[in-house]
Amino acid sequence: MRRRILAAAGLVAAAMLALPPRPAAAQAPAATPVEIQFWHGLPQPLGGQLEQIVAGFNASQARYKVVPSFRGTYPETMVAAIAAFRANSAPHIVQMFEVGTGTMMSAGRAVKPLHELLAEAGVTIDFNDYLPAVRGYYQAADGRQMSMPFNSSTAVMFWNKDHFKRAGLDPAVAPKTWDEVAEAARKLKAAGIACPLTSSWPGWIQVEQVSALHNIPLATLGNGFDGLGATLQVNNPLLVRHMNNLIEWQKAGLFRYGGRDSTADALFPAGECSMALVSSGARSRITREARFEWGTAMLPYYRDVAGAPRNSIIGGASFWALNRGTQGARAVEEWKGVAEFYRYISQPEIDAKWHMETGYVPVRRASYEVARAAGFYDRNPGSDVPIEQLLRGGETTANTRGIRLGGYVEIRNIIQEEMEKAFQGQQNGKQAMDAIVQRGNAVLRNFERANRG
Amino acid sequence: MKKTLFKGTALPWLLLAPQLAVTCIFFLWPAGAAIWQSVLQEDPWGTRSEFVGLRNFAEVLVEPEWRGAALNTLVFSTSVAVLAMGSALFLAVQADKAIRGGNAYKTLLIWPYAVAPAVAAVLWLFLFHPSIGLIGQALNQAGIAWDYKLNGGQAMTLVIIAAAWKQVSYNFIFFLAGLQSIPKSVLEAAAIDGARPVRRFWTIIFPLLSPTSFFLLVVNLVYAFFDTFGVIHALTGGGPGKATETLIYKVYVEGVQNVNLGSSAAQSVILMVIVIALTAVQFRFIERKVHY
Q1: ipTM value for the complex
Q2: Who is most buried in B73, B92, B182, B206, counting CB within 10 A?
Q3: Beta-carbon contacts below 8 Å between A and B
Q4: According to the UniProt entry, where is the signal peptide (chain A) (predicted)?
Q5: Of 3.10.20.70, 3.30.450.50, 1.10.3720.10, 3.40.50.300, which CATH number belongs to B53-289?
Q6: B241 — contact with chain A (CB < 8 Å)?
């Protein structure tokens, strides 16, 4: 009898040890799942597709419930998250565009680094399988993962095969180098095409991608990966030469400046421009709207630069885990929920589905294989071009892994402004690049001052 | 004049309380917070904060970009006020004449006021966009290189027209009311004396409209300073370069896009001082010359 009581007491004690005290919410997982607030910046239809992934995660288990919420454009989402953090009510996860990475890296205790989050939750994700250009963008200088890569794209060139035929060019072959691009543009113009060449995202494509492709630094200290003291170096001979080329081509009617950010996207599917350097994510729109034959090619480069072309860099966004606010910590269970969500989205099947539905690149090699096995690239020729371009040259270098500069949202705007002044004829390429360096460095010093210590 | 005196102070305070509360919560508190923020240097997340005195102000004032924005604001506000008031006055004088369907005409003129700034901007965008806009395409076909995305002067012209267009209706109502309150007998007397319509306008109507004009000048300048954000944001985003970036737009760019709170707060404090000064000057000096 006594022995049975002792045994029962032992069982109870063991059960209590096995169940460490948890927040009330976690005690009855089926009844009240832990809510994970997730703010994203993807408008429709992408936002709906993202929310389907979230719904898939919620349906896959009952312990956690991720609550997605659209917060406007990327910059608006970023500002909303910052404001919420200051008001002690930040979301668990915020989707942050790649330009904001430098700012997030310096956010100190506002951010829960990904490697820490995963280690504490006991979740492992094989980042070695991720594309180097993707994972590297969101790593600290020592290689530890700081945020969860998600929707990634890169820039490619789309060309209008009908225009090429009209100008007597081979419609099956896209120009590979800038010389060939200029040559083709001249012929297209001679054939009466008003806009042979255009580009979206002037800063990202005409400055950042050009630097990465030719393996030249955009800023010191490894493009800012190694510290806040970095200074811009875009007034180098290559970028000055490229800018002068663009200005000259614009004057000659070969290149059309189509506006800031993605506004030039519309010029290609409308059949106005023959060659468009835009985000690979523009593919779905072009598929839907273009009423002509077109192809996808890698970004052009300068043949005479040694070592070119390397991999291009990514655009898009990653997921950051945030603390609740300046005074607020989070329960272990909440971080676990975030980690489990990350594990779910890291599955190659999920990633491949996202890639095939949206036009973003797969972030893992395994997902690339899944999509290939599904025959996606046979059905959609050219949709593997951005991935191959990201993988070109193997491992990334200090100049091709990405940009890690604080206040980079502002610097990108400065780049666009100075380019616009150059295209207006107010300054030449050298002056534009010098102005970017001077104004951009002021932003960097200001950021360094506000974030030291 | 007979004054009513309250006994005690409780009732007056009670009656004043709602207005005072509104003023404190919606004006004094945010203004105070802006002033406090303007002497701090903070990282975006508010985890590190440092008192820096007037350094934010000093840095803003030497910035060439800020001076550029100040110049843009001057050009923009003056042009918007002149254009909006001038065309409204012209339309009001025409509408005041005995014309057939005058009421329909007046009603239609008031409509633009009900259009939200961003929507107004999109309407103008569809007219003037170089490749999809009706007028934009026509201009390019006529041989005028119209591209407000690259030409700063054209961009400024466009935002001025769009911003002024929205304000014309408001000015029109006030001018029309002002015109209708001018005694007909005075005008008839002048007409009998042989004054022609143009002379009657400049010697009688215009001076008698001056209280209205003065009021509208203040309202229009404040409008151009503060309420045109939506128009600029949707049409040009401050570009090309910084050609259409006004002071209020720069506050937004600095604070919301760049999350540079100290500098943004310093700029809004400067803006606040400018507007207070402007209004004070207007009431002190210009008002004296106005005939009521």
Answers
A1: 0.74
A2: B92
A3: 84
A4: 1-26
A5: 1.10.3720.10
A6: yes
